[in-house]
Every structure is written in C-alpha cells, then in structure tokens.
Amino acid sequence: RWVNLGVEKNPALRFSRDMFLLSFYLRGIPFVDLVHLRKTDVKHNTIYYYRHKTRQQLSVHIESYAAQIINRYKNEAASSPYLLLILSLTGEDGYRQYKSALRLYNQHLHTLSKMLRLSIPLTSYVARHSCATTALHDALPIYALDYCNTRVGNEARNFIAKSVPRHIHYPSILKLQCLFHLRGQPRRCPD
Predict the structure, then answer these.
(1) First CA to last CA distance, the chain
(2) Under DSSP, is residue 94 helix (H, G, I), strand (E, B) or coil?
(3) CA 83 to chain centre
C-alpha cells in the first residue's frame, strides 16, 4: 500500500514516508536522533550515535534499503555536519528548525494515514516502536526487544503491542535483517 500511494509526485509526503521507513529500518531510531545524525557517525556501513534522551551509545548496521533512503537525502554540503537534509543550523536556531521539522513530519504522517485509511494515525512514535512491535508479533524473546533501540519493560511492552494497528503489514525486519552491535560484535537476531 505504501508504494501505490502516489507520493512520488509529492516530495514532502515522499520525504516523510521515507523518514518513517528509515526510522523503522534503523531499529526504531527516534526522529530527534535521526535528524541529528552526523556524517562522522557513519563508519563501515554502520551508524554509531548517542541517544539524545539517554546519552546511551548505540550502533546500527545500514542495510541496503536503508542506504537507498540515506543516499536519496544525503547532505552533500561540505559546510554541514549533518548526514541528512533536514537540519542546516545548530544551537537555538537548529533547535527551532528541528521542532518545525518534527511538526511537519507528523502532519505529513497524519496525511499519509488518511491516504492509507488507517484508523490509528501514524506518528513518529509509531515508527519508533515498530521494531519492538514486530519482535512482539513475531514472538521473539523479550531480550530481542532490548536492542530495538529501547529498553522495554512489561508496561511499555504492553503499550507498544496495543499502539500499532495490527492490520498494517510491516516487513519482519528482525527476522530478515536486524543486526545487533553488542559491545562491537554484530549478531543476528534470534529466530
């Protein structure tokens, strides 16, 4: 359904769709961390970054479908430290630019939800928690949830399981391509 939406003719909606998918493909990276990724965070097909909220260091392997999106929106300006073409400013101006981008992103996701006729609107949080939700739907062990870019307790796990519409078909990213980088050692998710 994503492909047949006709967003290719609307660059703003295409961009928001792509950022939603990229967030999912990168193990549920929050929008704040996605927009603040720096060019220097990418090394050997892996993104290494610190979560804004927790300052926890994380890494995620860049699969080919994520790389296609990154390359489409890669910031080529030598003067910009940012990986993606979302932020161009730093400091207070950069913060205002981020808040504006987040607001616009969520508005576009709301529009996409209507186009998809979803009963529950898409938000940046849906993309964020889809990695864990996919793990839950695929009945992976609970420890697999811990590496979907968040630590998940029982209460949060129940919330996540209920927050994503079950009729949306997400590719089983954890079974197909989810790579963990634990203490520098890449590992495949358990089946």
Answers:
(1) 27
(2) helix
(3) 14
